[in-house]
């Protein structure tokens, strides 16, 4: 039986940037859209799943991807500590690449991306099924042929309903491979974008979620719409810590900007609206529109 290893899909050091205290305490407020009341919990106990990045084979468990992600985190952690104290200009190519690599992998390493991959597999399989029907002369003809071969008397409506209930899962290891390749392709584009850092005033704090890297299209407010990074109207929102949020765009002048509580509230609502299930905050938030979060799918282990 495989040994269970708890693996964080949102790094602990990053979550500590949203803790209720700057030092000596890593607890933060956790909002679960399946539960009405937020809870105070340690950063080490949230945003984790057993063997989430592991590869399984007859010889046991291979955690090479987990080790690679740990190296990315170790390289980026000093930059995050600096960002809590000072404005980093990111004109240094190595520093920019290190930060961009961390954000790019964080965009792909979450349960949300894993779920989207399952949905994609489901849609591809159903698309091939529809093409098969069309080649047979349509759904009615295909079902009649099936009934003749099997002796069943299935109606096209029941057959289509059964097809819609099918659960198609990608082969094992698909998530890990596509996650790694997708993140690598994102890095150069993300590093080329203009990075605008919004710093909150003393009256409001940024929140983060179990899907911290948010793609937002300025021309489309639909929370279910997922724009691509090369779209000129795309914004990438990434809360760095409770007082700093990155907004990456293809236009504008890079820099640090002090924003008021209304801007912070607007950013927080966009971040909350793109979450998978959990929201993390340094304070109890009373004005986050949690109803915009997509319905939960499954329980976290």
Characterization of the model:
With 301 residues, this protein is α+β, with helices and mostly antiparallel strands. Helices cover 39% and strands 19% of the residues. The chain is built from eight helices and 13 strands. The strands form four sheets. It has a five-stranded mixed β-sheet. A four-stranded antiparallel β-sheet has the order 3-2-13-8, with helices on one face. A hairpin with a 6-residue loop joins strand 2 and strand 3. Helix 3 packs antiparallel against helix 7 and helix 4 packs across helix 5. The C terminus is likely disordered.
Short description:
The chain is of the alpha+beta class. The protein has helices at residues 12-15, 64-83, 93-108, 111-135, 139-150, 156-164, 174-192, 261-273, and strands at 6-8, 27-32, 39-42, 48-50, 55-57, 60-62, 194-200, 208-209, 214-217, 234-241, 244-249, 255-259, 278-281. The strands form 4 sheets. Strands 9-10-11-7-12 form a 5-stranded mixed sheet.
